[in-house]
């Protein structure tokens, strides 16, 4: 049997009891930590589980499905992922590869940023399409996520913005060489994301700026959701672009313009601005 | 300390290790099971935890915050909820009540239908606003959820439809009496939900029917997500309205018209129709 097990978001004890029982009895257990990260290193997980883990890095997950799934028809093999197994397309694809090989699979669900984001008090059912904000470089500055935020705002939906993670990215220079060299890991901060968003907002015409999204619009910056050190701040885009929320991972929410009184009351805990009647 | 602990979706072992440790050491532990249900009875949870639970029914949760929170400034009290603590407005409100009373709180996240719905293979980030489909009666047939599904379809987003749950609803006749009597619990099925949806679709004009949503549109029926007996079926609205998915809870997804090839490949596992090039 092949098991895809979600680890949740925080520390080793965020695994479910069901997940832990499976981890303990599997022949091989792989740990995937490049589409997201936990708040603890691999060694801490190994100590807690009382067993060694095989690190499944980007190369192994994207090209090594055969290796990971090998023998899973006869023995128990698990792949551990941060959050919930259906959070990343990579994992959905993995299940299809298992099916192709006629390997039975089971999924153990857990919290992921897609539902834990409710911790800021904005109601989950009112979120529209989720966007990803990618790191810009000198030549590549995609801004299509802005149109999705705009559409959500126009129809009074909140937007969760997932911020870019660069783990085990080959350096451009090494791509041509036999031996890849990797860039140091980078995790986009809320400040970086809001700076990029402000750049886009400034490019758009004045009318749109004033009605849909502008530098005075509210946003929610979240860091380390589900960890003991979780931090949430509510402020304007302009102020948020100068705010340091500490270590990774960060997430950003652009709330709908009209919020329920309970949502406003909840967000107010994290704001210095008076949110009642705030309308930008 | 007041703890709000998510139980996940399936059986007692879906609680996290962190959640279980807290449950074991609390002075009082309440179990809320009217906004959703687990796949097991209260007694099974009590046996697994090795401790008694206090049932927090609708009346106690909505009017008894004082009772549940009583003493939580000095001792540990927990409220267990199905799924994740931020899945229902009631629980968000509970946290605000704790804050008012200057009671510290902690949340233990878990999977909820809002992220576990990814099990059908549709990508979570492409879901738009979530809708709730309420039971109709002779005089009250609300259909505002249809406009939200339509908006999501127009902008190529999937829609998760949460189906009505009636637990501990007073009978209309008993509302005037001193002693309330309750209706038997009811859980809306995928068949009932699609029947209501078909009724709305038939009322709309022919043009709209043909382009946005009609009886040949695809939908995904899900039952008991996260349980061992989980069942997923992909079919047209018309066929789904005649399909029995077994015991509760049921959920329904109306996919976007354009899907990613990986989404189509995943859904195909649950369909007898050929989904490639299907376009209704």
UniProtKB/TrEMBL annotation, chains A, B:
Gene3D superfamilies: Cobalt-precorrin-4 Transmethylase, Domain 1, Methyltransferase, Cobalt-precorrin-4 Transmethylase, Domain 2. It comes from the Eukaryota. InterPro entries: 4pyrrol_Mease (IPR000878), 4pyrrol_Methylase_sf (IPR035996), 4pyrrole_Mease_sub1 (IPR014777), 4pyrrole_Mease_sub2 (IPR014776), Dphthn_synthase (IPR004551). It is an enzyme of class 2 (transferase). It comes from Bactrocera dorsalis (Oriental fruit fly). The gene is DPH5. Signal peptide: none annotated. It catalyses: 2-[(3S)-amino-3-carboxypropyl]-L-histidyl-[translation elongation factor 2] + 4 S-adenosyl-L-methionine = diphthine methyl ester-[translation elongation factor 2] + 4 S-adenosyl-L-homocysteine + 3 H(+). The keyword Methyltransferase applies. Residues 1-195 form the Tetrapyrrole methylase domain. Keywords: Methyltransferase, S-adenosyl-L-methionine, Transferase. This is diphthine methyl ester synthase. S-adenosyl-L-methionine binds at residues 9, 84, 87, 112-113, 163, 225, 250. GO terms for molecular function: diphthine methyl ester synthase activity.
